[in-house]
TrEMBL record:
Record PANTHER family: PROTEASOME ASSEMBLY CHAPERONE 3
Protein name: Proteasome assembly chaperone 3
Single Gene Ontology BP annotation: proteasome assembly
Listed InterPro entries: Proteasome_assmbl_chp_3 (IPR018788), Psm_Assembly_Chaperone (IPR053720)
Residues passing through the membrane, by range: none
Species name: Diacronema lutheri
Gene3D superfamilies: 3.30.230.90
Lineage: Eukaryota, Haptista, Haptophyta, Pavlovophyceae, Pavlovales
Top-rank taxon, per record: Eukaryota
Length: 128
């Protein structure tokens, strides 16, 4: 049986005038997403919904853990949770997220989320 290659999407977006590279790979048990405005990997985080989270995720906090990179940065945690909620919450798959952003402002977050939702065909579906 041939090995299956997971679906890979690569995008060049403009977020608030800044070129932003996005790589999105859907594995069977998780999703990997790299979002970079600096040409680097940046901070790598694991983001997921708690196992007891109900359908749709209404009102339940999402868990974000920094694996590599800048720790104890509340803005990165907010970005990670919001990216997860925007693109992965319905599928309930864990997200490995790499963030290297030049601007961590709320306005940049809103612009980034809008561009991600516009660009990604099927945000977080498993490759089965």
């Amino acid at each position: 049986m041939a090995d299956r290659v997971p679906p890979i999407e690569s995008h060049r977006l403009t977020v608030n005038g800044v070129l932003t590279h996005v790589v999105h790979i859907s594995y069977s048990n998780r999703v990997f997403m790299l979002i970079s405005q600096t040409g680097k990997m940046g901070t790598v985080m694991h983001v997921q919904a708690p196992s007891d989270m109900g359908e749709g995720g209404g009102g339940v906090s999402v868990e974000a853990q920094t694996l590599i990179g800048q720790r104890s940065d509340d803005a990165l945690d907010v970005y990670a949770r919001r990216v997860y909620e925007a693109v992965c919450a319905k599928a309930r798959l864990p997200l490995m997220l790499s963030l290297a952003l030049s601007d961590l402002s709320p306005a940049n977050l809103a612009a980034l989320l809008a561009e991600l939702q516009r660009a990604l065909q099927e945000p977080c579906r498993s490759a089965q």
